[in-house]
Fold:
Amino acid sequence: MDITIHTCVLPHEDPEASVAFYRDVLGFEVRSDVGQGTMRWITVGPADQPGTSILLAPPAADPGITEDERRTIAEMMAKGTYGWILLASHDLDGVFERVQAEAEVVQEPTDQPYGVRDCAFRDPAGNLVRIQQLR
Structure:
């Protein structure tokens, strides 16, 4: 099979804050930005990986979602338990030094007992962003 990862989706509540984080803090390029107000769908990704993107989307924008489901999504986002992503870098410590001043630190770079070294932050919407050391 010829399958690649094209896009993953993370929710956002504040499009400007999300763009500032992914573009200005993580250094991703903005590939598309459609919609208006808080109902914006923004695609970002590393410049050297044009085939892989993150879609920052309004949470619960699907018209089939009930009000109870919308409330649950809002509660999970507020707790930081709704969305997350795992990124990787050859320079974990350098990335941590740059990002820690701009984002809520969840975990400093740590050697995990399962064999990886990683750190974690929250983006402006509360999504967990883990960054793993590439070896």
